[in-house]
């Protein structure tokens, strides 16, 4: 699945678990100075202090393991309301909600899908856009996010 960087996630996972966090997603953007973006969460949520603690832990791991050949900036944050969806379990948890998915290849003549998540299994999801359902394999996804719902009446 192209939605997370597995090698870096595997390196950081023991450190995250030791602190009581789940790694939701790891993103790596290129350029002269790369950005390693790690989204963390826990059952009780995460705050700025949690992100700072995880950042120190992850920075130490990355300094020792040195998996990135060029300069990089490490960013650690909560997944937020428009949380990234990177693993089948993330998709399964939000069936019935709206998602935005960008594919690496064309599926049904398009790369971008924004609609209701109808189904999620271990190989693909089904998203309904404009009354048409599309089966989207995880291994062809570039990125996926939950579409936030704002309740202004509360």
Provide structural commentary.
- This protein is of the alpha+beta class and 154 residues long.
- It folds into two domains: 6-77, 2-Layer Sandwich (GMP Synthetase, Chain A, domain 3), CATH 3.30.300.70; 88-146, SH3 type barrels.
- 25% of the residues lie in helices and 41% in strands.
- It is built from three helices and eight strands, in the order H-E-E-H-E-H-E-E-E-E-E.
- The protein has helices at residues 6-19, 48-65, 88-93, and strands at 22-29, 33-41, 71-77, 98-107, 110-120, 124-129, 132-137, 141-146.
- The strands form two sheets. The chain has a five-stranded antiparallel beta sheet with strand order 7-6-5-4-8.
- Strand 1 (22-29) and strand 2 (33-41) form a beta hairpin.
- Helix 1 packs across helix 2.
- It is globular and about 50 Å long.
Task: Lay out the secondary structure.
Blueprint: H1 6-19, E1 22-29, E2 33-41, H2 48-65, E3 71-77, H3 88-93, E4 98-107, E5 110-120, E6 124-129, E7 132-137, E8 141-146
Parallel strand pairs: 2-3
Antiparallel strand pairs: 1-2, 4-5, 4-8, 5-6, 6-7
Helix pairs in contact: 1-2
Please sum up the structure shown.
The protein has 154 residues and is α+β, with helices and mostly antiparallel strands. It contains 3 helices and 8 strands; from the N terminus they run αββαβαβββββ.
């Amino acid at each position: 699945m192209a939605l997370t960087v597995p090698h870096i996630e595997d390196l950081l996972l023991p450190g995250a678990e030791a602190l009581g966090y789940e790694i939701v997603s790891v993103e790596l953007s290129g350029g002269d100075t790369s950005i390693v973006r790690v989204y963390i969460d826990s059952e009780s949520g995460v705050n700025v202090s949690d992100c700072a603690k995880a950042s120190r832990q992850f920075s130490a791991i990355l300094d020792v393991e040195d998996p990135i050949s060029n300069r990089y900036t490490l960013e650690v944050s909560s997944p937020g309301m428009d949380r990234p969806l990177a693993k089948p379990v993330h998709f399964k948890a939000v069936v019935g909600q709206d998602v935005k998915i960008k594919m690496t290849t064309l599926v049904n003549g398009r790369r971008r899908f924004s609609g209701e998540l109808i189904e999620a299994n271990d190989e693909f999801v089904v998203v309904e856009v404009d009354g048409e359902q599309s089966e989207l394999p995880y291994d062809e996804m570039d990125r996926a996010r939950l579409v936030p719902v704002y309740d202004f009446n509360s």
